[in-house]
Automatic annotation (TrEMBL), chains A, B:
Keywords, alphabetical: DNA-binding
Species whose genome carries this gene: Paenibacillus oceani
NCBIfam families recorded: HTH_metalloreg
Every HTH arsR-type domain range: 1-95
MF term (GO), any: DNA-binding transcription factor activity
PANTHER family: TRANSCRIPTIONAL REGULATORY PROTEIN
A matching Pfam family: HTH_20
Protein name, per record: Winged helix-turn-helix transcriptional regulator
Length: 114, 114
DNA sequence: TTCAAATATACCTTTACAGGAATATTCCTC
DNA sequence: GAGGAATATTCCTGTAAAGGTATATTTGAA
């Protein structure tokens, strides 16, 4: 029932790795929405919307507020911060600064010669 | 056969949303490796390693270089840049809980990245 | 206290995919 | 060109998960 503590684990990625759920997240980027609004804007049947929202909530990506008989969903910040931190560890890759391939091949060649 | 053009689509996420593949990516963060080395370091059987590497390659996350009868895999930069760009669109969400100092420092850091 | 709206849940069916094991392919060395 | 090492591929099986449909639950209002 309660959302997981968000660190950059695979459950967060798998939650986002579903087309509809990614759309939901992108939709909520602009602000909180109710289940019905989400379903309508994305052309979903209500049960599927609820199911996807449950998955996202269970993985700590969304949080829910009850408003009368409506449930308002909004994004939590932590998972995105965690994802951002994780991505930072790939900064070297992103910047293409090292071409480690040459070095690697060199090492292999050295080993072969022993 | 050839890798897909990397934009932040769900296929990239689903490729990373598998525990072993995420480990492979994190392993290759430090430099290119051959199939055998990847399998050994992660305790995988060779066929499973090859299969995961194929998925990652098909989604444009890795690229391969043939060296004799070895295949060297390394990370491509584009998918991570795309993921980073996508994440930036959630900056409003991420910064929600930060005071202005943190926001300021973050902006400075982003400038450094150019 | 009954009705309708909004949402969640349960059950079923189908499909995608991961692992296991065997086999095919490629390339070097002798 | 035969053998072995490194890697890819194929086939099989089990399982997780997504959609469809029906139904349960909660809430406000008449």
């Amino acid at each position: 029932m309660s959302g997981k503590i968000p660190d950059m684990d695979v459950t967060m990625l798998s939650a986002l790795a579903e087309p509809t759920r990614k759309k939901i997240v992108e939709l909520l980027r602009d602000g909180p929405l109710s289940v019905g609004e989400i379903a309508e804007r994305l052309g979903l049947r209500q049960p599927q919307a609820s199911k996807h929202l449950k998955v996202l909530s269970d993985n700590g990506i969304l949080e829910m507020t009850a408003e009368a008989n409506r449930r308002i969903y909004k994004l939590r910040s932590e998972p995105f911060q965690a994802m951002n931190d994780w991505l930072k560890s790939f900064r070297g890759v992103m910047e293409d600064r090292f071409d480690k391939l040459d070095q690697y091949l060199r090492d292999m060649q050295d080993q072969d010669q022993r």
